[in-house]
Amino acid sequence: MEARARNLYLIPYMLWVVLFVVAPILLVLYYSFFNVEGQFTLDNYAKFFTPVYLRMTLSSFWYAFLITLFSLLVAYPTAYLLTRTKHKTLWLLLIILPSWINLLLKAYAFIGLFGTYGFVNTVLELTGIGNKQILFTDFSFVFVSVYIFIPFMVLPIFNALEKMNPTLVYAARDLGASPWMTFRRVVFPLTLDGVKAGCMAVFIPALSLFMITRLIAGNRVITLGTAIEQHFLVTQDWGMGATIAVFLIIAMALLMLLTGNRKRGLIDIVKR
């Protein structure tokens, strides 16, 4: 009876997965085999492997890597400090709060900050540095993207640090390990699952960014997400847009498989 009840409870979940995960993926795959005229073709897949789209793919992975790297460099120390503050829940809420604001509103806010007559250039003028072109650059694109994705990196790392047994850190210090050695041999390996989860939560959506590339980078940064938007909304070539989306889905699935969480014992960590 219990097994039958569990199976009944699984039905809504399976329906959700089929309708909103499997069906959209199959629909995208279906459209990828048709050209603009609606004729069946494999040319979309051949076109994807041309130099134009391969450079776009490399550019997307490069910018996603930079965004993930800088997010990690900011988020790990932040999460580490949060675990040692008195009102950690309040501070964590303040970090997560910006993620509740609409992405478009945040993008327009940075347009105002980085614009020619924005706050940042006003400060630069007052300090004697002079007016600089900040908006529509690679720097502004990466900076705004990192700001948007930091909460998604902080949360899993914070959870991993909170679950870590503090007696292991005390033991390492009692055995004469320096703070850096303790972090490298004990703290970081024990929180590696949180780091992986945070990197995936940032890297995967960063691969398909398109709104920020248009508003903040001024289309100077071209990614696969931008190409998908152009094919679906401008050129109306749904087949090519769907083909790019198929390769993005495959890339994301491979990344998730390669970085899947594997439970390691304390003995494995100590051996390293």
Structure description:
With 272 residues, the protein is mostly helical. It has a single domain (51-271), classed as MetI-like (MetI-like fold, Orthogonal Bundle), CATH 1.10.3720.10. The protein has 14 helices and no strands. The chain has helices at residues 2-31, 43-48, 51-82, 88-96, 103-114, 119-126, 138-163, 166-174, 179-190, 192-207, 211-215, 224-233, 238-258, 266-271. The longest helix has 32 residues, at 51-82. The protein is globular and about 70 Å long.
Properties at a glance:
single chain, MetI-like fold, mainly alpha, disordered C terminus, 272 residues, globular
CATH architecture identity? Orthogonal Bundle
Number of strands: 0
Shape: globular
Tell me the CATH topology: MetI-like fold
Count of DSSP helices? 14
- Flag low-confidence runs: 262-272
- Can you identify the CATH class? Mainly Alpha
What's the oligomerization state? single chain
- Bin the strand percentage: under 5%
Structural class: mainly alpha
Helical fraction: over 70%
CATH superfamily: MetI-like
- Mean pLDDT comes to 88
The structural domain count equals 1
Report the order of strands and helices: HHHHHHHHHHHHHH
What is the rounded distance between the termini? 47 Å
Main β sheet profile: none
Rounded radius of gyration (Å): 23 Å
GO cellular component, one term: plasma membrane
Subcellular location: Cell membrane
Protein name: Spermidine/putrescine ABC transporter permease
GO biological process, one term: transmembrane transport
Blueprint (SSEs and pairs):
Elements: H1 2-31, H2 43-48, H3 51-82, H4 88-96, H5 103-114, H6 119-126, H7 138-163, H8 166-174, H9 179-190, H10 192-207, H11 211-215, H12 224-233, H13 238-258, H14 266-271
Helix pairs in contact: 1-13, 3-7, 3-10, 7-10, 8-9, 12-13
